[in-house]
Amino acid sequence: MGFLTIFSNCAHIYDNEWKTAQKIVEKYSLQQFNYPLDPRGYLVITAEENKIAVKHYSPQGQFLQEFFQDGLTEKAAIKMYHKLILSEVVSEISHAFDLGAELQKAEIAIKNNLKYTQDRELIL
Length: 124
Prior knowledge:
Elements: H1 18-28, E1 42-48, E2 51-57, E3 63-70, H2 76-86, H3 93-111
Antiparallel strand pairs: 1-2, 2-3
Helix pairs in contact: 2-3
């Protein structure tokens, strides 16, 4: 007889263990994600006076360029995203995902007269 290896993608959490499982998720869920910094820099997003503004900084914090989009136009977040992609300000996929979510929140905030703060929950 040799070794037996089993790979399974099943997980079971029984009713009496939900609280324990929740504690584990709260303790470890954010620790497992160490996203790489984008070598092209970082972006600061604001939503004021019906405009989405994105400032691009180098990894060292030097201001590089700024982009604007009327937040009241249809698909404003997508239009801004395209400007940023064409300008090649993003190289990391995790950065691109985050950018898309933040731009969408900024557009929703403008169109619904809400306060937008980057990396914070949008309060409806």
